[in-house]
Amino acid sequence: MALSHMTSERLSTLTSWNADWNGLRVAVLGLSVTGFSVADTLAELGADVLVVTEKADEEYARLLPVIGARLWTGPLDSADTGTAEGSVPAELTDFAPEVVVASPGFPPRHPLISWVRENGIALWGDVELAWRVRDKVVRADGSPADWILVTGTNGKTTTTRLAATMLVAGGLRAAPVGNIGTPVLDAVRDPSGFDALVVELSSHQLWYLGLQDSPDPVSPWAAVCLNLADDHLEWHGSFDEYRAAKAHVYDNTRVACVYNKADAATQRMVEDAEVIEGARAIGFDLGTPGPSDLGVVEGIVVDRAFLEDRRTSALELTTVDELASLGLAAPHIVSNILAAAALARSLDVAPAAIRDALRGFRLDPHRIEVVARHAGITWVDDSKATNPHAAASSLAAYPGAVWVVGGLLKGVDISELVSGRGAGAKAAIVIGVDRAAVVAAFERHAPAVPVFEVEADETEGVMAQVVELAAGVARDGDVVLLAPAAASFDQFASYADRGRRFAAAVRERIGTGDPGDHDTTAANPADAPRPDDARPDDRG
């Protein structure tokens, strides 16, 4: 079923919404938010669409026949014959797809992905499809929206939201899309149109993007990889494969390749990237910036990249004190702000607009969110710290905290985190299915830290026990920090569910079910214990 010459020639012409997509046989793998956006787009284009998924949301399943797509559901990852062929539904092989568009949840070694590649069928992700049809709605000059790409092990969502907020403050029609929640395909089909889309990309999406073989490949206006650390190794198979996927964010960048000077891996990505002639490398970190960098000088956040006289001067964007008053002064958040500002400045957003954007910006829930202050103890929810790199940033912001850690480690070794930032914790409260590995890491690398193991297996009981243990250890002036360094799916529906349950247990402990009945940073961020001042050696 190898891709025929005729099919290959046809696919090379499909680089516009206005191309002839009619009758193209496309199989869509997965029916989540992304999968449905793919199916809906293709059906609107006139393609012949078959959606293949293990299970389907009832609403999406009801809508598929309405939009003119077909649905097959059943097991997808069992191979009766021990080969990829043995796990491919007959409905899919009989359909003989010319293109397969996979949802990012399908890893490279999934039997269906193996079958697609072994048979030479074109394999796309939703991002490639969105790029091909991005001209459905164009600007007054006839051009589609510019794309700004954001990836990294941590900080993607915050940076994406920051950059989009800054662009809007600068007078541009912009939106945060992609892995952040709104599918890119929904944005490119929005009839109101945009000047710029800030596209958050996971390593999964970037792996698929790296497969693209198009005469018009994705070519962003600007791109950033914020940082790189072990994560999603069970999906990619190795750290090298994970790094290679992340590096695709810089492919064909036209104007600005933004990188983290405190993370050499991101600089190497830029050095190795194939970019459009004239694209600049723009660095950021928490130290004094050189020309073509953004950084911090004596508490002032400055731009030395996007001004004519960058050799001898800099533009003030904000101050660390002002960020502290907004609850945005944690070192890794300042790094995110610098990265977002670099992206916004590449599109000529004025420094004053960036400052205005920051004044109205609020972090997402479960990102270093202070949920309560009671009896001198501050309770902080950073449930979104789902890997060691993110948790290290949290611990750098709140050194000496009572640390709630553990969950599903996703094949990542937590030893380096425990021996580094973890060794400074006042105590560790360990949760999750992989807690034995966490406890062992403390025994080997930080034996002086008291460790308490939460043995509750039922979801409803985990956080109540966490809060009880933490309350027994924490004293006036202490911080209890939920920064698990692990995924949540072993015991919770999501990191958000984990964070909500933590906050609810805290409120129950201090005797109020209403977060407004006690002191929180929502009322006054400056009242919370301030993180350490931004330092050049803190990696965001």
In brief:
The protein has helices at residues 5-13, 33-45, 58-67, 90-95, 111-118, 126-132, 156-169, 184-188, 203-209, 233-236, 239-247, 264-272, 320-325, 331-346, 351-359, 388-397, 415-419, 435-445, 459-473, 495-510, and strands at residues 25-29, 48-53, 70-73, 99-102, 122-124, 146-151, 174-178, 196-200, 222-225, 256-260, 280-284, 293-297, 300-303, 315-319, 369-374, 377-381, 402-405, 427-430, 451-453, 479-482.
The amount of helix comes to 25-40%
User: What integer is the average pLDDT?
Assistant: 91
Query: Strand arrangement, largest sheet?
Result: 7-8-6-9-10-11-12-13-14
Distance between the termini: 47 Å
Q: DSSP strand (E) fraction?
A: 15-25%
Global morphology: globular
Secondary-structure-derived class: alpha/beta
Please describe the structure with a list of short key phrases separated by commas or semicolons.
20 helices; disordered C terminus; 540 residues; six-stranded mixed beta sheet; 35% helix; single chain; alpha/beta
